[in-house]
Design goal:
Layout: E1 8-13, H1 17-27, E2 36-42, H2 49-56, E3 60-62, E4 76-79, H3 84-93, E5 99-101, H4 103-198, H5 213-225, H6 229-254, H7 269-343, H8 349-376, E6 384-386, H9 388-397, E7 405-410, E8 418-420, H10 422-438, E9 444-452, E10 457-464, H11 471-474, H12 492-502, E11 506-512, E12 516-524
Parallel strand pairs: 1-2, 1-4, 2-3, 4-5, 7-9
Antiparallel strand pairs: 6-8, 9-10, 10-12, 11-12
Length: 537
Amino acid sequence: MEQANTTLKVAIVGGGPGCKAVMDMIFAEKLSQLRMNLIGVASTNPKAVGCLYAKEKGIYTTEDYHDLYKLKDLNMIIELTGREEVANEISHSKPDHVRLMDHVAAHLFWDVFQIEEQGIAERRRAEKALQKAHDELEQRVEERTAMLAKTTEQLTLELTERKRAVAALRKSEETLRTINVELAEGLSEVFNALNEIASGNPTVRIPETSGLELMSKLKHMVNMTAENLGEIVDLSHEFAIGLAEHFDALDRVSKGDLSARVSGASQVELLESLKKVTNHMIESVSREIAERKRAEEKLRNAQDELIRGEKLAILGQMAGGVGHELRNPLGAIKNAAYFLNMALEAPEPEIKETLDILENEVLTSERIISSLLGFARSKSPVRRKVSVKDCIDEALSRVTVPDKVEVVSRLDDTLPTILADPDQLLQVFGNILLNAIQAMPEGGKLVLGAEVQQDGGMTISFSDTGVGIPKENLAKLFEPLFTTKAKGIGLGMAITKTLVEGNGGTIAVHSEVGKGSTFTVTLPVLREEEKPNDSKI
C-alpha cells in the first residue's frame, strides 16, 4: 500500500488550455496537499498551448500518448481531450498499476477546486468586513457612551431644577394655605363684629393685627366705621355678600380650582380694592403652577427620549452582532444549496422542491440580516436635491404589486424639490409601500399624494384600504422589535422613523380597523437660498 506522503507522478493527455490550467495549479503548489508531480504531456498538436507550456517547463512531451506508458513510476493519467473514445482506449491499453482520471472527473475536480478557492476568498473578505464592522461598532459605542454621559449630566441638572421648582411650588401652596387660614379667621372676626353692630352694639371692636395687610386694613375699617351705626347697617348687607364672594373664591382656589375669580362691581371702595388684590394673587399662583406643570412635562419628555435612545443603542449593538454572526453560516448554506443544484443533473421532484424551499428561506434570512445590519449601521444622511415624485416612482418599481391592488398616484410633476438623502428616502418609501401592500391580502386601493404646506414643509401621504391597525398597537408601531407579522422582526418602521427624523422630517399614522391606514411623511422643502449646484436626483 502507498504511503500517505508519496508524491503522485502524473501525465496529461491533451495539450489544450485545460492542460495549461492544471499545470499552473501544480506549479503554483495550489494542489500541494495531493503531492502531484507532472512528468509528461501527450498531444497530437505539438503547438497546443499546454504542450508548448510543458516544453518551456522542461516536461517530457510526445504526440503519442502510448509513449507515456514507458515513463518510470507513472501513477496516473489525466485525460483532458474530452473525447470518449480516447478515454476508453486509454482505459483498456494502460498498464494495470496506472490509474485514469477521465475528462468528466477532471472537470468536476476543477469545479470543486474553484469552489474551494472562492470560499477561501469569500471568507477572507468576510473576515476583513467583520473586523471593519467591529472597529466601527467600538467607535460607535464610544460615541454613544460619551453622548449618554452628556445626556445624563443634562438630566441631572434638569432633575435638580425640578426639585427646586417642586420646593418653590410647595412653598407657594403653603403660603396659599396660610393666606386661606388668615382670611378665614379674619373674616370670621369681621362677620361676628358686623353681627354685633347690626344688633345695635356700636361699641364692638376687633383686634387689627393680622398676617395679611389687607385683613388688617379691613379690621381697622370695621373698627373705624362701627362708630357710625346707621352707615354700617346700610352697607353691611353688600359688604357681607362681597366678603362671602371673596371667601368662596379663595376656598375654591385652595381646593385646586384656579379658574375661580371674584366678579361683580361694588360701591364699597374697600371691596373693590380687595377684589383686585385677590384676583391678582390667584392669577399669579395660576401662572406659577402652569409653568411648573410645563417644566415637569418637558422633563418627562426628556426622560422618555433618553430611555428610547438607550434602547436603540443597545438594540443597534445586538442587531449588528447577530447579523454578522448569522451571515457566514448562511453563506455556507447558500453555497451548499448551489453546489447541490449543480451536482444533481436531474433530481427527483421532492428533492428539487426541498432545494427551492431552502433557497427561498435563505433569501428571506438574508433580508432579515440586512434589516438587522441596516438598523445597526444607521448613517448620517448625505443630502442632495431630490424629486419626491421620482423617488416614490423608483421605490414603487422595486416593490412587487399584486394584480388585485390598484395604485393611484396623485403626485404632481410640478412639486418642488426637497433636500434629503435619496437612498434613505428610497428605503423609507419602500418600507411604507411594502407595509401597505401587505395590509391588503385580499386586494384594495393604494393612493399616493403630496402637497406643500404653508409653513414650508411637504406632506407625502400613503393611504391604503387594508385591514387597519388596532388602536392599542398605534403607539408601539415605531418601537424596535414590535411586529404583528409571522416572519417579521419589527425593525422596518423603527428604521423608517429614524431615517425620516435624520432628514429633518416627521412621520405619523392614522388608522381605522377594517377601513385602512394613512402614513404621512412631512419633509422640509428646499428653499431657494439652500439650493446646491448639483443636478436633481
